[in-house]
Design brief:
- There is one protein chain.
- The protein is α/β, with parallel strands linked by helices.
- An eight-stranded parallel beta sheet has the order 4-11-10-9-8-7-6-5. A two-stranded antiparallel sheet has the order 1-12. Strands 2-3 form a two-stranded antiparallel ribbon.
- The protein is globular, with a radius of gyration of 20 Å.
- The relative contact order is 0.17.
Amino acid sequence: MFDKEELTVIRKFEHIEHCLKKQVEAHVSTQFENIHFVHMSLPEIDKDEIDLSVELLGRKFDYPIMIAGMTGGTKGSQLAGKINKTLAKAAQELNIPMGVGSQRAMIRKPETWESYYVRDVAPDIFLVGNLGAPQFSETIPNRYGIEEALKAVETIQADALAFHMNPLQESVQPEGDTQYKGVLNALAELKSEFPYPIIAKETGAGVSKEVAVKLESIGIDAIDVGGLGGTSWSGVEYYRARDEKSRNLAFRFWDWGIPTALSVAEVRYATDLPIISTGGIRDGIMIAKALALGANLAGIALPLLKPAVKGDVDGVVNILRRYIEELRNTMFLVGARNVDELRKVPLVVTGFAREWLEQRIELWEFLREGRRVL
């Protein structure tokens, strides 16, 4: 029999396999299709003067894109390490930030640390470590604290820590950790003594304005909304389920959450925190819409996994460069010279997105007065 930490390592292989071979995306949309730009027939700018650079957490990046954390924590097989190094080489080439997958396996099984380590191939990137919220719960025996957080960052020479919130995935996972009691207080304590930036990160179900306000109140440095519309981790757990009861539960919650576009709007309306818009970003127009709603970066994951598994750095870079060119073209067509100007262009909100945001925020004041950003 495997112990719990060995099962964690095995689970990571299964996650990669299902994401590569199965349909794991949400059946519902990000709602970006209901966010519309107003075309400018006289943009009054030259396309080649558009500046796509952005700043976040004290670092300047050439493009408003982040490679979102996907994997890590293997021993024996080099698959996770190969994926992370491939992604890191692409991030180094483009000067964009990158995250690694959950480092829980590394904390419990230190010999897996190399699967997360990318500094040998990407010495200059802004690298984000990753630990899960349940491991900090007051009801977990031997819960994590400052020691584990420092280990996660410093072992791999990261620049920040993502604190991932994944109650949906944990709730449908047979071996999941559903102890969330005291997590906010634990995060506040960690933030008070931790010397690195902390990014609160959802993993596919979105961040509400209510949660965003709580996170801002304890000094969290940024929020990755991880919205609904991309990879559904409930969907992934559906394929992993070993019995009918578990499959049924995962299937019922496959499309649970706040669509990415709406989560970005909620968090921007409620806070002044930097926002990373992750969850179903599949082209440069979607990136532009996320930025226009107030995001600082857009995170990309699943589309990069297939070339990364093959060690195809050029394949990863080519996908990202396509997104970059689509973003640049969108900005030209709305007359935005840079990302700050893009955040001020007019938007039209229709359909379900309009209904949601009219109930959840003062939508028209939000659009009229501009999206608050740092």
